[in-house]
């Protein structure tokens, strides 16, 4: 059996190499602070749904190096006193974060880790790995949710998922607004609704489609969806499904529905709906699958397709075409001093210091379209926010309410935030998305949400830049 | 700690639902045979490198339902006698497969599972999940290997990988021609060479870049690569790296090299190479990273960039933009009869029966550019192969040698094939790729490799089609 436990070695080698240097230099108790943020919304979207926090916090509470990890590090010739130190390693830092399910935007710090420099550095890779991927999928799912109206959405993607990434994808999909998953492992682990129909192979394994449908109806009289495109959707699949559904009625049962998996889903669903209705089978649902994504779902609903449930696979669970959120984890403080990374690419210059982030809210309670990043040491509310990279650009936000986004969720390695169910998290994402004006949610050239910085933060960054230039 | 073990529940719900029906209908000892193949080469390429076989076989030898799996299935209201059956479930089927590392093409059966209908059905999802993903990444890696010449390639992708998919990605990358990975977990699990440098945060955590380089050199005197773009690559990073490398020389050590992570990698690498050489540091290598893929690597090498090692992240481990191989698992026999799926999409009609696949080889020992699929019952060598979907198209292959691709690798659930090291598998992929003419390897409109069928197979399919139409 292939087993994977996310232990200390679930990281890039250089995290361990750097930590060894800190240790050997006597810096193990130096403090450090890192910010997690991303730079670009994937797939040409206007927002990202933040997901993966609970998984990360759960991993951090119990993160350690196993005996196997340590013996591998010995093989790699790490210093034995450092390996002794890792043997007792636990993450005992603090974490501040947005709520899981928050709607987030580029260049705004979403999560902050404070701790000793070794623990804060060592968790970088795993934190990025989980948050980047779950957020990618929650975002992709929310785009499908946005255009699916009141139709149900089910994750059918495990077979095309990137290995065990499919497990996290199922979770991300629920946060983004999906109702269920075909992935039994994920359903079991995260307590998600499991869903599924039947495969072509099932039907082919019988000598006739009718026989296959009857066998399935007998085994699952209260939960049976007939796949109707194995031979010919309209000439064979739908008529056979109707025949068996009527037989079920006479035995006091109700068929669940049919699934279309090829051909013109708009056309076929309308014809099938008509035929089901004419047979008095109004209660039977129509499930559609086959290379769906947010664009296909939008087009199908615009065409008035008679689809009740979309089963989405590849393009959900891989978040294609971008397939990654570019989240990064950047040092902002070390040994009590604010720290900065310069870059020839202006947008890659980081924001130093310990920071708060606030969301600007209109008098109607909606998102105004701006987040502002300030230093925690600032006493006063920020009236004007400045563009982080383009000098001279500013925006007056003084009249609006500002809602703090970050809260302490972990203290000295222990989770102190409330534990939310996935349903709660999905509900939060849904409510927050309702506050985001539609201009940011459209697929074509969505409106650009502004993230600005306070005057003091800008001044600190400029000062550090000058210091480094000297 | 988040732990994942690939058990029986690592599957789509419908595999279990269908299996329950087979069980309840008394069909548990019926036989079935499934083919694994894919339909489209991802990312506009001309071939796929087959990877993941050893992982799949290892999982199958020990596949079972855990107590947790079974109690979850009870919650889902599966029949208790079926759950009792699953309690004792083991995969005891046969598997025939291409060699791992084989170069494979669309619509050609690559792997065949024979077993009872429940075991053969239940393994579908996990087999697709692992083979599709590892093959995707091995293929992506091989495209980078193709243009990287004799430069080294290292997987730096875990932070952007799709969750735990990053573990399999590291393995796939090695099969496709990468030399190392930054992923410590994968290196440990699969015994891969681990590699890494240092991060910007390390440098920023010191009061000066020079101080940071000195600390690193002291801690890792024989294995140190300096990241040079934290403040200014040419004005600060490279000069400081040279200073410290010269100090190391005077202590009898040699710096490993420098890493460029932003800016114009072609230009910067040439200037940096010059400066290193002028300082007598010919032995120092130049590592480059930052959004690399096969196209960027190709362009860099064409520009004469002085790069010795490419560190590739996101675009390797996610296989973007397609991010998935569309492999499918289709029933070809059940209860001793050949089976067929029809479809309105011609290319989705399956190939019935138990089949062999042969690769046509020229007199020079190269791949001729054609694989032929025949029925195992055929006694004679196939002289003419037919297009599987376009009637009338055929190709004479009688003069050429035909090499069988499938061999039995698992018998009654036990691995009977030789166990190959990853180095062996990567070596096989490399040797086989050398036999593939370059037309199939180019990035722009690669030549179309032909997969055809024997006359008897075509006749069997036509006959089954006719039977169903009646």
UniProtKB/TrEMBL annotation, chains A, B:
InterPro entries associated with the record: Aldolase_TIM, N/Namide_PRibTrfase, NAPRTase_C, NAPRTase_N, Nic_PRibTrfase-Fam, Nic_PRibTrfase_pncB, Nicotinate_pribotase-like_C
Keywords of the record: Glycosyltransferase, Ligase, Phosphoprotein, Pyridine nucleotide biosynthesis, Transferase
Domain of life: Bacteria
GO cellular component: cytosol
Modification(s) after translation: Transiently phosphorylated on a His residue during the reaction cycle. Phosphorylation strongly increases the affinity for substrates and increases the rate of nicotinate D-ribonucleotide production. Dephosphorylation regenerates the low-affinity form of the enzyme, leading to product release.
Span of domain Nicotinate phosphoribosyltransferase C-terminal: 355-460
One GO term of the biological process aspect: NAD+ biosynthetic process via the salvage pathway
Chain ranges of the Nicotinate/nicotinamide phosphoribosyltransferase domain: 153-330
Catalytic function, reaction form: 5-phospho-alpha-D-ribose 1-diphosphate + nicotinate + ATP + H2O = nicotinate beta-D-ribonucleotide + ADP + phosphate + diphosphate
SUPFAM superfamilies found in the cross-reference section: Nicotinate/Quinolinate PRTase C-terminal domain-like, Nicotinate/Quinolinate PRTase N-terminal domain-like
Domain Nicotinate phosphoribosyltransferase N-terminal: 11-132
E.C. designation(s): 6.3.4.21
Associated pathway: Cofactor biosynthesis; NAD(+) biosynthesis; nicotinate D-ribonucleotide from nicotinate: step 1/1
MF-aspect GO terms: nicotinamide phosphoribosyltransferase activity; nicotinate phosphoribosyltransferase activity
Enzyme class: ligase
NCBIfam families: NAPRTase_put, PRK09243.1-2, PRK12484.1
Family: Belongs to the NAPRTase family.
Function statement: Catalyzes the first step in the biosynthesis of NAD from nicotinic acid, the ATP-dependent synthesis of beta-nicotinate D-ribonucleotide from nicotinate and 5-phospho-D-ribose 1-phosphate.
Protein name: Nicotinate phosphoribosyltransferase
Organism for this UniProt entry: Panacibacter ginsenosidivorans
Lineage of the organism: Bacteria, Pseudomonadati, Bacteroidota, Chitinophagia, Chitinophagales
């Amino acid at each position: 059996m292939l087993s994977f436990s996310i232990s200390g070695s679930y990281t890039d080698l250089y995290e361990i190499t750097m930590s060894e240097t800190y240790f050997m230099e006597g810096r193990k108790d130096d403090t450090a602070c890192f910010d997690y943020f991303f730079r670009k919304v994937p797939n040409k979207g206007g927002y990202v749904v933040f997901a993966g926090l609970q998984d990360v916090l759960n991993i951090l509470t119990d993160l350690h190096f196993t005996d196997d990890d340590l013996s591998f590090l010995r093989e790699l010739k790490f210093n034995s006193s450092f390996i002794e130190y890792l043997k007792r390693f636990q993450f005992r830092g603090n974490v501040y974060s947005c709520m899981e399910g928050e709607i987030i935007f580029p260049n705004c710090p979403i999560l902050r880790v404070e701790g000793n420099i070794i623990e804060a550095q060592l968790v970088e890779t795993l934190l990025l790995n989980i948050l980047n991927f779950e957020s990618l999928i929650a975002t992709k799912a929310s785009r499908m949710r946005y255009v699916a109206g009141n139709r149900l959405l089910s994750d059918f993607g495990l077979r095309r998922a990137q290995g065990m990434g499919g497990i996290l994808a199922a979770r991300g999909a629920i946060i983004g607004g999906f109702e269920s998953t075909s992935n039994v492992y994920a359903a079991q682990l995260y307590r998600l609704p499991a869903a599924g129909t039947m495969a072509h192979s099932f039907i082919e394994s019988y000598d006739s489609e009718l026989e296959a449908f009857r066998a399935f109806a007998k085994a699952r009289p209260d939960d049976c969806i007939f796949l109707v495109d194995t031979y010919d959707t309209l000439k064979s699949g739908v008529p056979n499904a109707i025949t068996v559904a009527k037989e079920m009625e006479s035995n006091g049962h109700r068929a669940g529905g049919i699934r279309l998996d090829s051909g013109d889903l708009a056309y076929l669903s309308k014809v099938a709906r008509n035929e089901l209705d004419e047979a008095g089978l109004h209660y039977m649902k129509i499930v559609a699958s086959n290379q769906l994504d947010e664009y296909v779902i939008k087009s199908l609903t615009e065409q008035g397709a008679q689809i009740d449930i979309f089963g989405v696979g590849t393009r959900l669970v891989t978040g294609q075409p971008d397939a990654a959120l570019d989240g990064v984890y950047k040092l902002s403080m070390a040994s009590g001093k604010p720290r900065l990374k310069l870059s020839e690419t202006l947008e890659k210059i980081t924001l130093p210091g310990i920071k708060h982030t606030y969301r600007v809210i209109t008098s109607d309670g909606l998102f105004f379209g701006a987040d502002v990043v300030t230093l925690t040491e600032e006493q006063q509310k920020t009236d004007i926010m400045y563009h982080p990279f383009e000098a001279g650009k500013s925006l007056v936000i003084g009249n609006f309410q500002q809602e703090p986004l970050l809260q302490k969720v972990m203290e000295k390695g222990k989770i102190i935030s409330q534990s939310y169910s996935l349903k709660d998290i999905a509900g939060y994402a849904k409510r927050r998305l309702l506050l985001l004006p539609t201009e940011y949610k459209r697929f074509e050239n969505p409106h650009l949400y502004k993230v600005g910085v306070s005057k003091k933060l800008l001044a600190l960054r400029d000062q550090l830049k000058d210091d480094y230039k000297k």
